[in-house]
Each structure stands twice: as C-alpha cells, then as structure tokens.
C-alpha cells in the first residue's frame, strides 16, 4: 500500500477531526456534541450527497454500466450476509450471527462520503449513480438477516406471533437514510433536467458547506467510536478479527466485480467501499425491532468501534491502491 496515500488520507481534515474525537474520549475530556446536532449533520450529508448524485445521474444518464453496478451492489448486499452467517455461527448464536451478518451486508453512508472526499483530493472523478447503489444496498441486507433467523433459528412456539412483514418492509425501504437519499437523488435529477439555474442555487448549500459539516460529523463519530471500544471486549478476538477480515474479503470481491463491469477508478473505489463497509444506523435500528434477542453491543460496537475507523483510516487508501493496481485509468 502506498505510504503517500495513507498519509494524505490521515492528514485530511475530516479524518483528523475523527482522531480529535477519539483523543478527547481517551483523555477524558468533557468535549461533546449536543444530541440534536449529529442527527442534523447526518441528514444534511445524506441530502447533499443525494442531490449531487441526482444531478450527476442526469448528466451521465442511465446505461448498461449503471444497471450492472446497481445489480452487483444489490447482489453483494445479499451475498455478504449469506457468507458471513456460517462463520459467525462458529462462535455466536443464530440471533447475534444473523444481526451481525446483516450489519456487514449493508453500508455506511459516512464511509462512502469520506471516500468521495478522498477521491476529490486525488483529483479522480466519480459518477452520481453510485448514490443509487448506496441507497439500494440497505433493504436487502435487512431482509436477508431476518430470513436467516426464520430459517435457522429455534422453532417458534405456537402462541408466539409470526414476523410482522409490514413494519419490517417499511423499515427496510422507508427508513430515514434510504428515503432521504432516494428522495434527494430524485430532486437533484428533476432540478438538473430543468437547467443549470436550480443547480447553481443549491451549490452554496450542497457544495460549499459539505466539507466542514463532514469534519464536524466525524468529530462526533470519533467521540462515539472511542466510547464503543470498550464494548469490543465483550465480543472477543473472534468478532474483532471478523470486523476487519470480512470487509477486506468483501473489498477484494468488490474490486474484481468493478473490473468485470468496467468501472473507472473513481466509481470502482466507491463500489469497493460499499462492499467493505458496515451499517451502524439503519440495520441496527431494524434489528432492534425485528430481532430483539440479538445483543446490540455486539453488532453496533463491531461496526462502529472497529470497522468504521479501519475503513476511513486504512481501508480507503488500501482499496484505492488495489483499484489502481487492477483497474487501468481512463
């Protein structure tokens, strides 16, 4: 892995602010972000990336590459939980194994956004349709996780109610992340189709503020992730190893698929990041509702306390090196 890529990523403002948040917790500082603000920052980032993605999708159009990429993204969100589950069952019960498998089949929007910022610093372009792949990878992972519980879990007693598919599908397809991403993407697509005036009016909000808000959000993520590190002790070395090795394996498959589809280096990195990340928002919320037997400290702490920091600090430059090695620039 190129040391210059790692250093450049480590010295980017958002990642440095992430480290500041971690350091604040380790030093027992009283630094904290008031509770309403992280949610607002998260909504802003999703809105901005969705809107910009819709604009770029209008410019690039929907073609075979777009459809193949989205299909491959959905396939990975199904395959990763199915591959992860048997390994997790070596040490964990059905409920926890299914919840963690679903967590790693889904994605981290903040990791994706950080990867976009990394590409911008490298002067490498990407296409807006990757946002559609981002949004569509969450629902399949949630559904597969529940199906694993139903098919492999202990038999339900006769008096126990079955799965409430209505609330589950509502959470999978209409949770706040998916709805805001897809809605913002559609708005960006519609605005761009009417000309440049509407796009230019949104730029001060969606472009100029973006990097600063991302830095502030990662500061809060550093605070939260550092507080979750202690929870990893409950998981043991098995889950800690899985939290790093599974994303690496998925990223290798992601690079291979990106090359097979014919993606450029920018899109290939974003696709690889989607394959190698893990959800710490949408899937945990769905698992708490549908699989209450699973321990949230296991699937949240592994995704947020280890996989997320690994991805934004080491994973992104490592994946970029893999992409550059196997996918030619054009």
From TrEMBL:
It holds the Pfam family Sbt_1. It comes from the Bacteria. The keyword Ligase does not apply. The chain crosses the membrane at residues 6-27, 39-55, 67-88, 95-114, 129-151, 172-193, 208-226, 238-262, 268-286, 298-320. The keyword Transmembrane applies. Keywords: Membrane, Transmembrane, Transmembrane helix. InterPro entries: Sbt_1. This is Sodium-dependent bicarbonate transport family permease. It comes from Aphanocapsa feldmannii 277cV. The lineage of its organism: Bacteria, Bacillati, Cyanobacteriota, Cyanophyceae, Oscillatoriophycideae.
